[in-house]
């Protein structure tokens, strides 16, 4: 996937010349896993393209509703796990990129310069993705920021990398609880203000500030019906209307709230580095190792995620839960269950790949994985044109379970487009742009 440098040893010129890596040099298992992760991410993203905030309140505890069971299945099996897999593969990609440059003879500063230029462009792409194509859930910006840190971990022994990943996972669990506790304090302070207002007591300056703080937090995370209705109207409006809602929130997630989300992705990327160095992600370990990881991951992870689901649905909505529970055990356990389950998922997938079953399917998934950047942006383009007001305007009109028909449609486009494109070209169109910008040189794109 990465461009491999070739060096003219007879030349005194400092610039290195780079050529795209040959198809035979690609790590097919990595491509397949990346493709699966990319498609899987849309399972969680689709409601946020298509539905108003708090959409799940309508079926949150209604076991007779088909939407409840769709939500249950998606949450237990996929939620967080696909993004975790994508993060792990990203960490492995950092090693692939830097090691190939070093093996080809590129010096330390040449590798560093190329790497940081590459990630600088990724950060810019993330800003464009969030603020121009208007996807609130962009991950490119956050991945680019994490990658600036990740570079300095690449030489560590995999045991150290695993230890750091576990520490960051613990820190992520703690930060989840700190975020929840801070929100709950704001909520309780606001409820005290409401009591004072009902008793017609004059509000102190501190109470007025507490009310303002909570209302701002609620607008971002748990808006009331009036706010939801207002935002829904904006999402069904013009490009300018949609942007007026998406951009301020995207900016907050890229600045104000980023401290709470950084550790999750960074820890998983470092875990991906460790697993790549051990050969786990490339299928190089004995089959019995994958069977053991599968058994342990599912054996421990499934009970934890099922408990988290039950615990999170004790109350009819988020505000009732917030008012009653001082600890959010589900959020605290989230990093634990997703690490266990993503390792189990990867083990199952590698065992399937090695078995030779459905080789045509895995080849198609490999094509999607080779063009992950292009396909990720294609998700946004297709979904915004289907759901946002400046497109077909289906925002808020489909039921939750119906969204997965749209997912199948988008997946079909990804698979067909990727397979056909790679018959003639070495890279996806956006992958080619990214490489050309990284090396500051137009890269060949057509197959020889």
TrEMBL record:
Q: Which UniProt keywords apply?
A: Membrane, Transmembrane, Transmembrane helix
What are the TM regions of this chain, as residue ranges?
Answer: 32-50, 70-97, 134-153, 160-180, 257-278, 290-311, 331-353, 373-395, 401-422
The yes or no answer to whether the keyword Membrane is present is yes
The family database entries (InterPro entries) matched by this protein are listed as: Bact_Transport_Assoc (IPR052529), DUF418 (IPR007349)
By its UniProt entry, which Pfam families does this protein fall under?
DUF418
> Which residue range or ranges hold the DUF418 domain?
275-441
PANTHER family recorded: INNER MEMBRANE PROTEIN
Q: What is this protein called?
A: DUF418 domain-containing protein
Q: What is the species listed in this Swiss-Prot or TrEMBL entry? A: Spirosoma profusum
Specify the taxonomic lineage: Bacteria, Pseudomonadati, Bacteroidota, Cytophagia, Cytophagales
